[in-house]
Design a protein that fits this description.
- The protein is an all-alpha fold.
- Helix content is 73%, strand content 0%.
- The protein contains 9 helices and no strands.
C-alpha cells in the first residue's frame, strides 16, 4: 500500500510519467465497468424507477453538478493527503463539516437532478461559503495545536487513507440515490475502487489531476443518459 501511494515521495518531482496516468485511467474505467456489469449479474436488484417527468436533464445542469461534485469530493476526501499542510487539512475538514451541517438541516437532497439549475448552483455555493467561514473561524484555534496535529497526522497517515477509502463509498451508499439502481455491495465496491484510484492520483500527481479525472469519470458515466 505504501509503495502504491508513493507516500515517502509526496512532491512535484516524484510525479510519474503522464502517459502512465492516461493509460491508468482507461484501465480503471475498464475494470470498474467490467465489475459493475459482472456484479449486477451476480447480485440482481430491482431498481427504483425515477419519474422521468420530474427529472429534466440539461447539459448545463449536469456539467454544473459534475464539476462541483468532483471538485468538492476531492477537496473533502483527498485534499489533505500530501506532506503535512494544516491549511489543506482544515479545508478538507471544513468541507466535511459543511456537508454534515447541510444534512442536519435537511437542505441536502438525495437527487439534485430534480432541482433547477439555480437551486443546484445555490446549494454548492452555500457549501463553499460555509466551508470558507468554518475555515476562517477555526484556523486561529486549530493552529495553536499545530505540532500535536502534525505528529498525529504523520503517525496515522496510512490509517487516515484507509478511513477515507471506506468513508467515500459509505457516503455514496447512505447519502446519495445510487442504491436505487444498484445493490449497496456493488456501490461500495465501485466507489471503493474510485476512492483508491483518485487517492493514488492525488498523492502522485496532485489535486488538480484527481479533480480532472474524477470529473471525466463521472462525465463518462452520465453520457448514456444523453445518448439514450
Amino acid at each position: 500500500m505504501k509503495k502504491l501511494l508513493n507516500i515517502y515521495n509526496i512532491n512535484i518531482d516524484s510525479r510519474k510519467p503522464f502517459y502512465l496516468l492516461f493509460i491508468s485511467f482507461f484501465v480503471y474505467l475498464f475494470i470498474v465497468n467490467f465489475l459493475n456489469v459482472y456484479l449486477k449479474q451476480l447480485i440482481p436488484i430491482n431498481p427504483v424507477i425515477e419519474n422521468t417527468k420530474e427529472v429534466f436533464l440539461s447539459l448545463k445542469k449536469v456539467l454544473v453538478l459534475l464539476i462541483f461534485a468532483s471538485f468538492l469530493e476531492e477537496i473533502k476526501y483527498r485534499f489533505l493527503f500530501t506532506k503535512f499542510n494544516l491549511n489543506y487539512l482544515l479545508i478538507s475538514l471544513a468541507v466535511i463539516l459543511s456537508d454534515i451541517i447541510f444534512l442536519i438541516f435537511r437542505t441536502k437532497t438525495f437527487s439534485l437532478f430534480k432541482q433547477d439549475f439555480y437551486t443546484i448552483f445555490s446549494y454548492y455555493g452555500g457549501i463553499m461559503l460555509l466551508t470558507f467561514l468554518i475555515f476562517k473561524i477555526s484556523k486561529p484555534i486549530i493552529y495553536s495545536f499545530k505540532e500535536k496535529i502534525e505528529s498525529f497526522y504523520n503517525d496515522n497517515f496510512i490509517k487516515l487513507i484507509y478511513l477515507q477509502l471506506v468513508a467515500f463509498p459509505l457516503w455514496h451508499i447512505f447519502f446519495t440515490n445510487q442504491t436505487n439502481g444498484s445493490h449497496f455491495i456493488i456501490v461500495f465496491v465501485i466507489q471503493f475502487l474510485a476512492a483508491l484510484y483518485f487517492t493514488i492520483i492525488r498523492i502522485n500527481y496532485g489535486i488538480i489531476y484527481s479533480v480532472f479525472f474524477h470529473f471525466c469519470s463521472n462525465l463518462i458515466a452520465f453520457l448514456p443518459l444523453f445518448i439514450f
